[in-house]
Amino acid sequence: MTTANRSETIDKPISRLFGQFADAIYTLGYRIVGDRHLAEDVVQETFMKVMRSLPAYRGEGPIGGWIYRIGYREAITVTRMRREDPIDPTTFTVTSLASGASVEREVLNIELVGRLDDAMHQLSEPVRAAFTLRDIQGLPTSEVASILQVSESAVKMRLARAREALRVQLKEYL
Amino acid sequence: MGLSCDDLDAMLPEFLDGSVSKDEEVLAAEHLATCEACTAELSELQSVTQLYRTHGTMQLPDEARERISAVLGLES
C-alpha cells in the first residue's frame, strides 16, 4: 500500500474513530478494570486492533458497536491480569461543576464521585459492564446485548441488579 | 384491575428504559399516583442513573491521547 493510500484508507478513518470513541472506551475500560493506567492500555490495544482489522471490516452493524465489542474484550483480558492500583478520583469528569463553583462544592463533588466509584466496583464485572454501557453511556439495550454477546433479557436483568444495588448503597445521595 | 407493587417492581427495568407499552405506562402511572413507596423507589432509581450519567463518564487524559496517537501513527 502506498503512503497516500494508507493515509486515505486507514489513518484518516482511524483518526476520526479515535477522536469519536477514545473517551467512551476509556470510560468502559476504567469501569471494568478499575485502574486508569490499565484503562489507557485498554484504549491503546483496542485501537491497535481496530486499525489492524479495519480493512477487513464489512460494516456489519454500527461501527461503534464493533469498537465497543473490541474494547470490552480488551478490558476483560486486562482484568484477568489486573494489578492493584490506587484510584485517583481527579481523573473523573465532574461535568456538573459550573464555572466559578466554590472549592467546598468541588470537594463535595470529588467525594461523591469517589463514592459512586466505590459503589460501582462492588458490582460483579458483567453487571458493571451492562450498567456502564446502558446507563452511563446511554447505548440502546439491543446494542449492549450485542456488545456483551448476551440476550437482551440478560442485559435487563443485569441492569436491574446494578440499579437496585447502587440505589441501596447510595441512598444518602438520592 | 390495577397493578400491585410487585407488578410494578417487575416492570421497573422496562419502565426506566421507556420501553413499556402505552397500556403498561398508563397502568404504571395509575399505581404510582397512589403509592408513595413505589414512587420513591422509582425516583431513587432514576437518580442513580442520572448521577452516573453526570459524573461517571471520563475523558482520556491529554498525555495518554498524544501517546496513543503516536503509537497508532496518527498525526496529532
Describe, in plain words, how this protein is organized in 3D:
The complex is a heterodimer of chains A (174) and B (76). With 174 residues, chain A is mostly helical. Chain A has 7 helices and no strands. In chain A, 36% of the residues are buried. The mean pLDDT of chain B is 89. Chain B has 4 helices and no strands. Chain B is elongated. In chain B, helix 1 packs parallel to helix 3. With 76 residues, chain B is mainly α. At the A-B interface, helix 1, helix 2, helix 4, helix 5 and helix 7 of A face helix 1, helix 3 and helix 4 of B.
Question: Top keywords for this entry?
Answer:
heterodimer, A: 174 residues, 0% strand, B: 76 residues
Condensed summary:
The complex is a heterodimer of chains A (174) and B (76). Chain A is mostly helical. Helices cover 71% and strands 0% of the residues of chain A.
List how many beta strands of chain B DSSP finds. Answer: 0
Main sheet: strands, sense, barrel of chain A? none
Query: Helical stretch count of chain B?
Result: 4
Total DSSP E strands of chain A: 0
Count of discrete alpha- or pi-helical segments spanning 4 or more residues of chain A = 7
Q: Name the helix and strand elements of chain A from N-terminus to C-terminus, one letter apiece.
A: HHHHHHH
Beta strand % of chain A: under 5%
Question: Mind sketching the topology for me?
Answer:
The complex is a heterodimer of chains A (174) and B (76).
Chain A: H1 3-33, H2 36-53, H3 63-80, H4 103-120, H5 125-136, H6 141-148, H7 152-169
Helix pairs in contact in A: 1-2, 1-3, 1-5, 2-3, 3-6, 5-6, 5-7, 6-7
Chain B: H1 5-17, H2 22-34, H3 36-55, H4 62-72
Helix pairs in contact in B: 1-3
